[in-house]
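Title: Comparing notes on inverse folding

I've been comparing how different people in this forum approach sequence design from structure. To keep things fair, I'm posting one structure and asking everyone to reply with a full sequence. Here's the target:
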């Protein structure tokens, strides 16, 4: 049984031991943006991210007592 398990492990580990036959490369370019992002757009983006991340957690914390009552019932 031990030999069978070693054989299975050897077959599965073989691609790893061969090295990277296929090299994947990300297409990353470092060019400046086509259009400059102004301060108004930056503020709108930051506000949107803030509400997206903190909004649901703030809602839960604001209604925490209601959630406690529902769980106890």
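Reply #1:
Here's my take.
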């Amino acid at each position: 049984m031990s030999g069978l398990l070693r054989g299975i492990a050897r077959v599965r580990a073989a691609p790893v031991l061969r090295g990277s036959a296929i090299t994947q490369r990300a297409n990353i370019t470092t060019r400046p943006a086509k259009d400059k992002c102004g301060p108004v757009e930056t503020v709108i983006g930051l506000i949107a991210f803030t509400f997206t991340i903190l909004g649901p957690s703030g809602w839960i914390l604001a209604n925490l007592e209601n959630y406690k009552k529902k769980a106890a019932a």
